[in-house]
Structure formats: structure tokens, C-alpha cells
Amino acid sequence: MLAQPDGRRLRARRNQSSRGLYVHGPAGRGKSWLAQAYFDEATVPKTRVHFHNFFDELHLRVHDSRDDPRALESALSELLGPSRLLFFDEFHVHDSGDARLLTRLLEFVFARQLTVLVTSNYAPESLLPNPIWHHTFESGIAMIKNHLDVFHLDGPHRLPDAVTTPHHGLRVRQVADRFGAR
């Protein structure tokens, strides 16, 4: 269990179908640091991607195979390889075309039962915030909520030095074990 600054304990809410974690909150709160610590402890085949870079590469590969009806699935298989853990850092959606592509990507990874770890400055409901297009990503948001535990990380802009205690590695390993990444 994690403790909040006021001493109250956080209880993880888990669906039986949960396969990962979506951590969101303001910039500079330690989301990427925390997710990276978890990722480093995972002993399964894994892939860590920055969201922008991944989408750039995905667009290129799909474009190169645009005549293949399975271009997206082939590109995703190539990019993810044998990974059982996928870490998306800086996840966001602002474009309706990317929303449709991302929905298919989520279907792909959840169908293959990959553990998905996400950091974002946006809560799932705030993805693709434009009210004209938001409906195009509602199924993606539903998948995120159904397959990932959603955790809002807030607090001071910089984490105190006390966060890196001698027990830090043990706690990260316990979290990794809990989400099946070890």
C-alpha cells in the first residue's frame, strides 16, 4: 500500500480484467520516474516508447504498407515484437485521426493481453478534448478504463529526496509483481 502525504493509505482499485496502469497528473510530479522504476524492475520482454516517437514510426510503417489491408497490425507486430509489457510515456490525443488509429492500437494490445503502462498529463476523460471530435475516442477511453487501473498522481512539483529510500527497490518489485510484470 502507498501512503498519501496526510498518512491515509491508498487502496488500489482493480478490475479482474485490468492489465496495467494509467498514471496521470500535472507535469513534474514524477509520473515518468515512477513508471520507469516499475518498467526497470519488470523481467518480461518489454518496450518503452515516447508517445510522439511511437506514433511517428507507426504512421511511417503503415504508410509504407498502405496497400496491405493488415498494414496496421503488421506495423504494430513489428514495433512491439515479443513484448509483454508496453510503456507509453507522455500519452495524449488531440487529433481525431490519431484517435481512430489509437483505438485500433488499444484493441490490438488488449487482445494480445499485453500489460500496458501509461503516463499522461491528461485524465482518460480529457483525452481528445475538442467537443466536436471527442466522441470519436469514447471507445478508446472506455478500453483504457476497462483494462487499466487509473491513478491520479498529484503533489509538489519536485519529489522529496526521501522517496529514494533503501526500501524503494523492494516496493517497486512488489508493484511489478502485483501487475504481473515479473
Main attributes of the structure:
single chain; 182 residues; alpha/beta; 5-stranded parallel sheet; two-stranded antiparallel sheet; 7 strands; 40% helix; disordered N terminus
Summarize the structure.
This protein has 182 residues and is of the alpha/beta class.
Q: If you had to describe this structure to a student in words, what would you say it looks like?
A:
The chain is an alpha/beta fold. It contains six helices and seven strands, in the order βββαβααβαβαβα. It has helices spanning 31-41, 51-64, 71-80, 96-111, 138-147, 168-178; strands at residues 2-3, 9-10, 20-24, 46-50, 85-89, 115-120, 148-152. Strands 4-5-6-3-7 form a five-stranded parallel sheet. Helix 2 crosses helix 3 and helix 4 runs parallel beside helix 5. The longest helix is centred in the middle third of the chain and has 16 residues, at 96-111. It is globular, with a radius of gyration of 17 Å. The model is unreliable at 1-18 and 159-168 (pLDDT under 50).
